[in-house]
Write a structure and sequence with these properties.
With 322 residues, the chain is an alpha/beta fold. It contains eleven helices and eleven strands. The longest helix has 21 residues. The protein is elongated, with a radius of gyration of 22 Å. Bound molecules: adenosine-5'-diphosphate and 6-O-phosphono-beta-D-fructofuranose.
C-alpha cells in the first residue's frame, strides 16, 4: 500500500532533541509529497484521537528547544490489545498510513504492536539513557551528559572549598551510561552503575582513602539513580571516612534544556531516514546510529539485541581517578 499520510508522536521520557527530530520528520515528509499528522501525548493521543494536521511552519522555531512540542506520555492502556485496537481504528479514521515513533525501548514495543496490526511504524531512538541496544547513540544523551557535567562542576566548587565529599545522583534507573560518561568528565573518585556490582569498602571507601594519602582533599562520587539511595550512601561514607559528605540529586533538570549540536544533528538525520523508509513503504524498522552512520534494523531484531556495558571505560575511570 502506498503511504500518503504519516503520523508522528513522541513517547516515554522526553529527551532534548526530540523537537529537532519532529521538525525533520515533518519537513522531510512534506518535501517528499506526504501529508503529516501530529499526535499529541504519545500513544494516548492515538487512542483518544488527539491528532492534528501539520505543515512546514508547524515546526518553526523548535529546533533549539528541549522537551517535546507534541507532549509525551506513558500509556498503560496502549499496552493492552484494547488500546492497540483503538489506536488502529483512529489511524483509519484520520487516514494515517504509517507512524514515526520517537522514544525508547518501551515505545519501540508499542511500534512493533502497531506494525503487527498493519500500521507500518518506524522508531527513532530518543532517551537520555542511551540504553537502546540496537544503536550506539540515542537522541538527548549528549545534552543530558553536558547538563550533568555542568551541574557537577558547580558542585565541585563548593565541595572543594569545604574539603568535602559529594555523592551525586544522575538519572538512569536501569542504565549507567549517563553516570559513566559524566563520572569520567568530572573526574569522579567512584562511579556506581546498575550494570556493575560494586563493593562499598573497596570501590568507595578505599578509593577515597587512597587518594587522601596522596593529598586529595575533596571527592565526587557519581551514582546512577538505579543503584540506591544517595542520602544513605553519603551517610555511610561520612561515618566510615570522617569526611563531611553531602548528597545531591540532579533529577529532571537533566532531561531539559536546549539540545547540543550533536543531538540536533543526530535528530535531523534520523528523522530524515525514518521518513525515507516510510515513503518507500518500509515499516517495522528502528533507526540506529552505528559506526558513524544512520542505519536501520527490524524492530524484533533490535528489541532482542543486547548492549554490553562499557567495562573498559569503567575500569579506565577508576584507574585515572586516584
Ligand atoms: P520508553 O519508550 O522511554 O522506554 P516506556 O517504557 O515508558 O518509555 O514506554 C512508553 C510507552 O510505550 C508506554 O507507556 C506504553 O504505552 C508503550 N509500551 C511500553 N512497553 C510496551 C510493551 N511491552 N508493549 C506495548 N507497548 C508498550
Ligand atoms: O528514561 C529516562 C529517564 O529520565 C530515566 O533516566 C529515569 O530513570 C526515568 O526516566 C525517570 O522517569 P520519570 O520521568 O517518570 O521520573
Amino acid at each position: 500500500m502506498a503511504i500518503k499520510t504519516i503520523g508522528v508522536l513522541t513517547s516515554g521520557g522526553d529527551a532534548p532533541g526530540m523537537n529537532a527530530a519532529v521538525r525533520s520528520v515533518v519537513r522531510t515528509a512534506i518535501a517528499m509529497g506526504l501529508n503529516v499528522k501530529g499526535i499529541h501525548h504519545g500513544y494516548n493521543g492515538l487512542i483518544e484521537g488527539d491528532i492534528f494536521d501539520m505543515n512546514v511552519r508547524s515546526v518553526s522555531d523548535i529546533i533549539h528547544r528541549g522537551g517535546t512540542v507534541l507532549y509525551t506520555a506513558r500509556s498503560p492502556l496502549f499496552k493492552t490489545e484494547e488500546g492497540v485496537n483503538l489506536a488502529v481504528e483512529n489511524c483509519k479514521k484520520f487516514g494515517i498510513d504509517g507512524i514515526v515513533v520517537i522514544g525508547g525501548d518501551g515505545s519501540f514495543r508499542g511500534a512493533r504492536d502497531l506494525s503487527l496490526k498493519g500500521i507500518p511504524c518506524i522508531g527513532i531512538p530518543g532517551t537520555i539513557d542511551n540504553d537502546i541496544a540496537s544503536t550506539e547513540y540515542t537522541i538527548g544523551f549528549d545534552t543530558a551528559m553536558n547538563t550533568a557535567m555542568e551541574m557537577v562542576d558547580k558542585l565541585r566548587d563548593t565541595t572543594q572549598s569545604h574539603e568535602r565529599c559529594s555523592v551525586v545522583e544522575v538519572m538512569g534507573r536501569r542504565a549507567g551510561w549517563l553516570a559513566l560518561q559524566t563520572g569520567i568528565a568530572v573526574g569522579a573518585t567512584s562511579i556506581l552503575v546498575p550494570e556493575v556490582s560494586f563493593n562499598f569498602e573497596n570501590d568507595i571507601i578505599n578509593e577515597i582513602k587512597l587518594s587522601q594519602k596522596t593529598g586529595k582533599m575533596h571527592y565526587i562520587i557519581v551514582v546512577a539513580e538505579g543503584v540506591g539511595n544517595v542520602h544513605e550512601i553519603a551517610k555511610l561514607v561520612e561515618e566510615k571516612t570522617g569526611i563531611v559528605t553531602r548528597a545531591t540529586v540532579l533529577g529532571h533538570v537533566q532531561r531539559g534544556g536546549s539540545p547540543t549540536v550533536r543531538d540536533r544533528v543526530m535528530a535531523s538525520g534520523m528523522g530524515y531516514e525514518a521518513v525515507r523508509l516510510l515513503k518507500e513503504g518500509i515499516g517495522n524498522r528502528v533507526i540506529a546510529y552505528r559506526d558513524n552512520k544512520v542505519v536501520n534494523f527490524d524492530i524484533y531484531e533490535a528489541l532482542n539485541m543486547e548492549k554490553p556495558f562499557d567495562i573498559e571505560a569503567y575500569k579506565m575511570a577508576y584507574t585515572i581517578s586516584i
